UniProtKB/TrEMBL annotation, chains A, B:
Pfam families: Nitroreductase. InterPro entries: BluB, Nitroreductase, Nitroreductase-like, Nitroreductase/BluB. One of its GO terms (molecular function) is oxidoreductase activity. This is Cob(II)yrinic acid a,c-diamide reductase.
């Protein structure tokens, strides 16, 4: 096993600290080999029973992209209309997706009952399959950040509609719709914190004891 | 933003490659400051709306630990009885948890409807809350691996029963029960692959195009 040095661990900490949900992108595309490399790295993620339930989809078709943007606009308008007063004003000021500028759109779906892995480890906790896909997305995100590439996870969408827009098998579950590209404004603090939406809770950094 | 060097990226790739689900542990405990540091690092994980829904629980009480082991044994026996022939024989040969030897047991729960984050980003995809906790677990796992520490995620348990054993708020969802300690046998290949249970699928490393 390789020995990881204190210097590496310090940089890894930096990576976790600077890994942001990016909503502001430059429009220039990434080299294709770089994107391919990120996908291969994502596939090193843990998966229950070694089931690799993830499906990574490059969305390049302009009509499909436009349909995704429309769905986001509709869902975001609804989310805003559910809020009132200062809360609504603050929400309206946030930029919550980089769908217009990000050069790459990547949808990530998950097979809910994969034959790969032969069911191991998911009998009592079948959600661990979807969670494996979440860890593949997180691996992609960290590897991208280490290459100076930004990722934004758009969740203000109707997952069923997006799956239909992408014409993917209805048995697959949409887990994430990612915007990917060079970030316009790197930052070590979450945008939601910088804009006064929410702060980290120090009590999360303490153990609960049992 | 820090520039990550090609050397760092290569080591990061090693980290992803050597991050294993560990089932064989040495019994010596980790220094407490190391465990505390891993928890603080885990809290750098992304979370929807900056909601930080994770709750990390150190399980030290021997009675609770014994109850968890019993539950695993029961669930694993049931998983075995659902299999037949060669499949059952192969399953029976696998070691699927390091609960006996691992010096530390850590349960990770998730608040399904946190007030922190004020609901942002989870309106149409409420599962993103649980998925945030999954990314905190994955962050913990990677940071541990970088420190030569092994993590094993036990999912062959009844999550409701474990939550009760730990006497945690019934509104919380049990996401993972982790074994943590120094690994007895580091390896770059998943144990399930080494033991012929399953292999990685090369087609996962290709984009689906839309």
């Amino acid at each position: 096993m390789p020995e990881f040095s204190p210097a590496f661990r310090e940089q890894l900490q930096d990576l976790f600290r600077w890994r942001r949900d990016v909503r502001h992108f430059r429009r220039d595309p990434l080299p294709e080999p770089v994107l391919d490399g990120l996908l291969r790295t994502a596939c090193l993620a843990p998966s229950v029973g070694l089931s690799e339930p993830w499906r990574f989809v490059r969305v390049d078709d302009p009509h499909r992209r436009a349909a995704v943007r429309e769905d986001f606009a509709r869902c975001n308008a609804r989310a805003l209309s559910d809020r009132a007063g200062t809360d609504a004003q603050r929400y309206a000021r946030l930029k919550l997706a980089g769908l217009d500028d990000a050069p790459h759109h990547i949808a990530v779906l998950s097979h809910p009952e994969p034959t790969q892995g032969r069911g191991l480890g998911r009998g009592t906790m079948p959600q661990t399959t979807t969670w494996s896909t979440v860890m593949a997305i997180h691996t992609f995100w960290l590897a991208a950040t280490a290459s100076g590439i930004g990722v934004g996870w758009v969740s203000i969408i109707d997952p069923e509609r997006i799956r239909a827009v992408l014409d993917m098998d209805p048995t697959l579950e949409l887990v994430a719709y990612l915007c990917v590209g060079y970030p316009a404004q790197p930052a070590s603090t979450p945008e939601l914190e910088r804009r006064g939406w929410e702060r980290r809770a120090p009590e999360r950094r303490e153990w609960i004891r049992r």
